[in-house]
Specification:
The protein is of the alpha/beta class. It has one domain: Undecaprenyl pyrophosphate synthetase. 44% of the residues lie in helices and 15% in strands. The protein has seven helices and five strands; from the N terminus they run ααβαβαβααββα. The strands form two sheets. A three-stranded parallel β-sheet has the order 1-3-2, with helices on both faces. The protein has a two-stranded parallel ribbon with strand order 4-5. Helix 2 runs parallel beside helix 3 and helix 3 runs parallel beside helix 4. The structure holds 3-methylbut-3-enyl trihydrogen diphosphate and magnesium ion. 3-methylbut-3-enyl trihydrogen diphosphate (IPE) binds next to helix 1.
Length: 224
């Protein structure tokens, strides 16, 4: 979800206005995902690197997150959304961590849409943490080093047990992965849309799905 700052700058508004409008786009996109029967949606809301933004913007973003979780929980639950967080959640203030845990517990039985929100998420840190766990388990004799395969690493990521993404969308015209799901997106179809995130909605989401549907996926196998 990229382009909140540029959206605000184009209107001579503070960046916070762009982030607020971005939260509305989140709502629209969740509705669109449910409408199109998408089973899993992962939103990159805050990266490990975003902590390096000016303190005022970080506190605007955490404040918005706090407000969003509290105000949207009932609606997400009603819509049948199961919310889960991936990322270093311990870096957020304790009250936000508690709200996130409560939201996960409240929505745990929902099945209409699996919604992952990536918060303080960075793919390299996630993979390094998985490697650290594997090394510790091997050291303690609980894991045979020869048994360390792709599944063993996947099982130690935040996304353990979840399907790999089929489609990865980045908005705002930037064409980078920026440390998002690097392992999991090995075979994802990439769609880059030249729309600022606060303007994103159903028509853009539908266009990304249509682009995905038109691709031929081979997963490295020879052409049929
Ligand atoms: C995305 O918009 C929101 C977050 C990263 C939290 P940006 O804040 O990156 O907006 P631009 O890239 O400056 O336009
Ligand atoms: Mg950006």
């Amino acid at each position: 979800m990229d382009g909140n700052g540029r959206w605000a700058a184009a209107r001579h508004l503070p960046r916070l206005a762009g982030h607020r409008e971005g939260a509305r786009a989140v709502r629209r996109t969740i509705e669109a995902a449910i409408h199109h029967h998408v089973g899993w949606l992962t939103l990159y809301a805050f990266s490990s690197e975003n902590w390096r933004r000016p303190a005022g913007e970080v506190s605007d973003l955490t404040g918005l997150l706090r407000h969003y979780v509290r105000s949207e929980l009932a609606e997400l639950a009603r819509a049948g959304v199961r919310l889960r967080v991936i990322g270093e959640r311990a870096r957020f203030p304790a009250d936000i961590q508690a709200d996130l845990a409560a939201a996960e517990a409240t929505t745990a039985a929902n099945t209409a849409l699996n919604l992952n929100v990536a918060l303080s998420y960075g793919s390299r840190a996630e993979i390094a943490a998985a490697a650290r766990r594997i090394a510790a388990e091997a050291r303690d004799g609980r894991l045979d080093p020869d048994a360390v395969d792709e599944a063993a690493l996947s099982a130690r990521l935040f996304t353990a047990g979840m399907p790999d993404p089929d489609l990865l969308i980045r908005t705002s015209g930037e064409q980078r992965l920026s440390n998002f799901l690097l392992w999991q997106a090995a075979y994802a179809e990439l769609v880059f849309q030249d729309v600022l995130w606060p303007d994103y909605g159903e028509s853009h989401f539908a266009a990304a799905l249509a682009s995905f549907a038109a691709r031929e996926r081979r997963f490295g196998a020879r052409p049929g």
